[in-house]
Amino acid sequence: MAIKKGSTAPELTLFDSDKNAVNLADYKGKNLLVLFFPLAFTGVCTAELCNVRDNIALYNNSNAQVLGISVDSLFTLDKFRKEQQLNFPLLSDFNKVASTAFDVLYETFPAFGMHGVSKRAAFVIDKEGIIQYSEECATPGDLPDFNAIQETLKGLQ
To answer: How far apart are the first and last CA of the chain?
Structure first.
């Protein structure tokens, strides 16, 4: 069960696809949309992140930084980000620290019997580091409720 609304977001550091260390606490003072996704280069993950790319103005206008997180290596995420021309950082949770802290890690991924894959989940974290929206998708094929996410962000302005 994903970390709940009203909880303090975990403080953790991951590497982005440009090999920079990124700490969630670095974004205090700014709203965050954190999107966990199972695997780069898969159909649903590509559709989800490209939808965010194409609608980035909605998030920018809400003073929100978007971060995508998966257990893929930072090298895989770099190639994926470039190929899809994603306009927000992708963070590697290769060691599964973030997925564990947010409680969105499959013990066994429904496809291919893989272990330790992030669930598809979305979190809105406010400027003070408090989770204001938490959604764990029922299956890897489901997408987060982007309308509810945008409504949450509008309420934080």
So the answer is: 28
